[in-house]
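2024-03-11 09:14:02 INFO queue: dequeued item diguanylate cyclase, len=484
2024-03-11 09:14:02 INFO validating residues
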Amino acid sequence: MTGRILIVDSVPTNRIILRVKLSAAYYEVIQADSGAAALAMLRRTAPDLVITATDLPDMTGRALCAAIHDRKAGLRIPVVILHREDDPGERLASLAAGADDVLTCPVNDLVMLARLRSLLRARDAEAELQLRDDTRRALGLAEQGAEFVAPGLVRLVSPPRLTETRALQDGLEARISDRVEVVDPDDALRERTRAPDVVIVAEPPGSTGQALSLLPQLRASRGTRHSALIYIAQPHQQREAASALDMGANDLLCSGLDLDELAIRLRKQIDRKRTNDRLRSNMQDGLRAAVCDPLTGLYNRRYAVPHVSRLADRAARQKRPYALLLADLDFFKQVNDDHGHAAGDAVLVTLAQRLKDNLRAADLISRWGGEEFLVAMPDADSDAAKRTADRLCRIMARQPVTLPDGNRITVTLSIGVAIGKPAQENGPLDLIARADEALYAAKHKGRNTVVMADTVRLIGAPKPTHSAISDITDTTTPRRAGLT
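2024-03-11 09:14:37 INFO prediction written
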């Protein structure tokens, strides 16, 4: 499944039609027929997104949206309000009340599914940043943020000579306190002194979607990589509108320009971008010195333990599995003995880089101790974790490591894998210990292999004498002398 979506509508036929469409797109769908039922379901389950009708038996869709956002526990859940007819005033009221998006019947399926994918991607990215920020706070590294907030910078990509461009710029400047600058499409990718908070890419009347090609370039550009992107399509450009969201746009006006709606969406995107910037800055600056390994640049054990605990808590709330991979370099002591410690450091740095290059951004990679590395993978079941571990072993075995003296040597990995399941009573530290036992079994099996924790049996060899979790500050003591 690609996500869990809660549909709230008092009309069974409406729920059924929407459920069929979403199920065909591989979403897990749950349903409620009233606002009270929806709020009760939120306490029992953990939906990734809510789609609600604007009129419910016991409250309005806007009231339900406010109640969802007022919840103190858990991550922020995106809410989409479904209107029965296109009423600009109602649409603006819903957006102003906190709805992340508004859809109007009859719903264009392409645009709806693209909007859902975009909202879920944004939620996952924010959740990962928030998880790391929570870990930082748990370590006592939180600091009070600055009170002063400078005006944002909005960059409008549209030919300056057009009358529509001037009207759009003037209309925005009258509605928002942020600075608005106009950039010609041919000049949109040039780096400037200040990165914009939001980039607006507008299709002029009569356009055939030429501006669409700018979106992936803006998303890939260093200067606009973290900027919010808003795409304005004309009413006849529904296919282009859907494509825009999949090509990197954060938000969309798919029925042409509405200055009041654009102003509301701009404020939301600027606020969201500032929150993400703050979380990203906290993570980079507040943690680096205290919880990063100075050699590899990866997180160390001090960071990994509370992070895995919070990952386990989130997995339990969302009723989804997660995976822990404990990887160890084979015969690492021999590398140091034969080639020197500088060569050993080069091998560790190379492995760290290969792990970063071949794992997801949401996966935590940490140097667990000596030549051991811990990988925590959210939303990963046994099959996905096994495939990932096998791939990492192949990559390391097939690509020799270049040493400081120019020589090249082949170094292999052994990996133990343990899966955390929602109904599992054992805590994350027990899961790390199980991954450690699986790693030991992989060493005993012959190295350069992967062993799943649930397949480990007594193998008649002595147990390791040093617990995987006994001292979270020790990141240098080699383990399992003679079996590395």
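2024-03-11 09:14:37 INFO annotate: The longest helix spans residues 259-291.
2024-03-11 09:14:38 INFO item closed
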